[in-house]
Amino acid sequence: MSLTFRIVLKNPTEGVEFGLQKGSGNKYETVQKQKVLKGDLHFEFMADIKKGKSGDYSLQGPFVQGPPLDRFVYIDIGTYAGQAGSPWSRRLKIPLTGISQELLEEVFNGQARILETKVPGTGKDGGPNCATVKPFEGWHQIEKGSK
Questions:
Q1: N or C terminus of the chain: which is more exposed, having fewer CB within 10 Å?
Q2: What's the CA gap between 8 and 71, in Å, rounded?
Q3: What are 70-113's pLDDT values in tens digits?
Q4: HEC-encoded secondary structure of 37-87
């Protein structure tokens, strides 16, 4: 069973390339690369939901990073996203926490929706937001087809 996630990067730093990290370690690629001129950026990915022996659900897949109880997704920024000559080499870590077992059960039973989060794209220093998103407002269900 899979679930669609959407990340909205609010007002990211202009002229900088951003992309979703697929894979980890030295064996990753940056996909859905986007360079902002004005406005927000949107990234979508799928994660598999696996039901464990204890009945709990966990998220897995090529975009999902970290240990089972602390999953997250990376947005690569500047040179990490493949932008040659960028003064920025950053990653933005977006937690996959706060998703209830009840919600995953609904998805697992075919009542799928999209989970969306909106995070700031510009940091306090005026450059691209990086490190773990704080404060993190979490993930919210939206209807498929919503923008």
A1: C
A2: 18
A3: 999 999 999 999 999 999 999 999 999 888 778 777 776 766 57
A4: CCCCEEEEEEEEEEECCCCCEEEECCCCECCCCCCEEEEEEEHHHCCCCCC
Contact between 108 and 51 under an 8 Å Cβ cutoff? The reply is: yes
Of residues 139, 133, 98, the one with CA closest to residue 119: 133
In a domain, 72, yes or no: yes
Q: Which two tokens stand for residue 79?
A: 């040179």
Q: Specify the number of domains making up the chain.
A: 1
Evaluate whether residue 106 is within a structural domain. yes
Domain that holds residue 64: 2-142
Rg of the chain over all Cα atoms, to the nearest angstrom = 15
Instruction: Judge whether 50 lies within some domain.
Output: yes
Predicted TM-score (pTM) of this structure: 0.90
Q: Minimal CA–CA distance to 76: which of 123, 129, 118? A: 129
Residues for the chain: how many in total? Answer: 147
Q: How far apart are CA 133 and CA 131, in angstroms?
A: 6
DSSP code for 4:
E
> Cα separation of 77 and 88, whole Å?
7
Q: Note whether residue 147 is domain-resident.
A: no
